[in-house]
């Protein structure tokens, strides 16, 4: 039969491959027509909610979905499911068994490959492999903590699939005792009360008052650098955060990954598009690697979700399909998992795949005035005013920032504004008035002070004790709000 195999984006036959029942034509057809598949996906574009609501989007959604289902069906034919396809880390890199160590790498343009002094053989389909048996004393020939160098022709490389590194070198990590998680992953939707995310490096993971989610920044593929933190210590820190009620998400920077993979096997087009420093999302092994990266962190480190950055999809349908597959995988492995996309001018990012969207839970946006979108997050890099930060918390779904001592975030944590799903939004003389739960928020985005009259009774102003107001009658007040400031009224 014809199917896609490793190292090629074209259907072809591979000699001597044994096909199990899951590869049979009957199995493939039954998978695409069974009840589970039909509940999860809608292939008729005219039945998609997004197309019904916005018919002008039909063409772009139809083209995108046709490619998505084409790739999905190819994955199911070869691997039976996205989850199985995304277990590349169990097939590539350094696989330890009771009898020895198997090393596999995809390097289609290499003429020769060695791991340290051990020569690899190739299947002529781009895959290289060597099995290193245990010695006569039943010990692995490579010791825990040893440096692993892949010699790709004349190039010295660290395996793309290495999960532990020391600086730029791959490390064989096989300790006698490994840390076992005590706490389960995300058990409820943090979305219900909004995300307040603080960025931290893997070496600095700790809970911070005012936040409910920690984001590990700039992690590169499946690699933990023992110069910074050991795998066991990272797992222990994540476990501690889970026990305290924090979610832990990870940033995937596709630009960094592309630069890391560029020219790995000596060519400029192994994982990247030829002549362009950009990942080739249409390649089978690029998809396997990127999806396996997601599966690895969820499975091995109990990561609760991901923020996808530096990926351009406006004119790249393959990149769009990759993001759909990634969201499908995340929410399959972790039903309450979190997926966040950087700000993109692209339709229906945060609708489910069955509705015709890309499946993200949140999109990042700039801190715009009046923006009331429940699936919007705002990123604060320290360049925003108090009014904008408060706007992000009470109008949008939450905030991502690097500053740990923001008073507005701490107020929100203390009083729990975002536990209320409904917010009533009005504008009075260019001042935004939001009623949410027992609180009223007055936000002045303008660059001048504003005097306003409101039908409001003030018991207490939480964030500015010296704020003055004039009580015109029992239920009417007059006050002045300074430029770019916000008031929290109880």
TrEMBL record:
GO terms for cellular component: cytoplasm. GO terms for molecular function: 1,4-alpha-glucan branching enzyme activity. GO terms for biological process: carbohydrate metabolic process. InterPro entries: GH (IPR017853), Ig-like_fold (IPR013783), Ig_E-set (IPR014756). This is Glycoside hydrolase family 13 N-terminal domain-containing protein.
């Amino acid at each position: 039969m014809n199917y896609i195999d490793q190292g090629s984006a074209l259907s072809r036959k591979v000699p001597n491959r044994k096909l199990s029942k899951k590869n049979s034509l009957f199995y493939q057809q039954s998978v695409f027509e069974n009840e589970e598949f039909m509940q999860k996906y809608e292939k008729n574009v005219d039945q998609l909610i997004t197309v019904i609501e916005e018919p002008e989007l039909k063409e772009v959604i139809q083209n995108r979905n046709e490619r998505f289902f084409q790739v999905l069906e190819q994955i199911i034919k070869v691997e039976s499911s996205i989850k199985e396809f995304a277990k590349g880390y169990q097939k590539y890199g350094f696989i330890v068994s009771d009898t020895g160590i198997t090393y596999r790498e995809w390097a289609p343009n290499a003429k020769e490959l060695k791991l340290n002094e051990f020569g690899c053989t190739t299947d002529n389909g781009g895959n290289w492999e060597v099995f290193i048996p245990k010695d006569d004393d039943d010990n692995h020939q490579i010791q825990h903590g040893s440096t692993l160098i892949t010699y790709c022709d004349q190039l010295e490389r660290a395996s793309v699939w290495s999960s532990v590194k020391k600086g730029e070198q791959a490390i064989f990590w096989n300790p006698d005792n490994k840390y076992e998680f005590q706490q389960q992953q995300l058990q409820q939707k943090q979305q219900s009360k909004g995300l307040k995310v603080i960025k931290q490096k893997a070496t600095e993971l700790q809970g911070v008052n005012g936040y409910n989610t920690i984001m590990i920044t700039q992690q590169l593929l499946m690699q933990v650098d023992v110069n910074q933190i050991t795998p066991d210590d990272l797992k222990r820190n994540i476990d501690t955060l889970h026990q305290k009620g924090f979610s832990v998400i990870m940033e995937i920077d596709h630009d960094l990954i592309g630069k890391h993979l560029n020219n790995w096997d000596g060519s400029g087009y192994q994982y990247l598009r030829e002549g362009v420093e950009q990942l080739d999302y249409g390649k089978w092994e690029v998809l396997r690697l990127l999806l396996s990266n997601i599966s690895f962190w969820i499975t091995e480190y109990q990561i609760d979700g991901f923020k996808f950055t530096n990926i351009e999809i406006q004119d790249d349908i393959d990149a769009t399909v990759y993001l759909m597959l990634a969201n499908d995988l995340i929410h399959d492995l972790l039903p309450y998992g979190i997926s966040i996309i950087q700000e993109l001018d692209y339709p229906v990012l945060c609708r489910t795949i069955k509705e015709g969207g890309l499946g993200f839970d949140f999109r990042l946006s700039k801190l715009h005035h009046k923006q009331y979108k429940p699936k919007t997050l705002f990123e604060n890099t320290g360049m925003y005013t108090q009014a904008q930060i408060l706007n992000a918390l009470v109008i949008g779904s939450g905030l991502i920032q690097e500053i740990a001592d923001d008073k507005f975030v701490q107020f929100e944590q203390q009083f729990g504004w975002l536990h209320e799903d409904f917010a009533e939004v009005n504008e009075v003389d260019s001042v935004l008035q939001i009623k949410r739960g027992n609180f009223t928020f007055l936000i002045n985005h303008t660059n001048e002070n504003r005097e306003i009259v409101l039908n409001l009774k003030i018991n207490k102003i939480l964030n500015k004790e010296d704020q003055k107001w004039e009580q015109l009658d029992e239920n009417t007040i007059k006050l002045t709000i300074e430029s770019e400031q916000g008031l929290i009224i109880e």
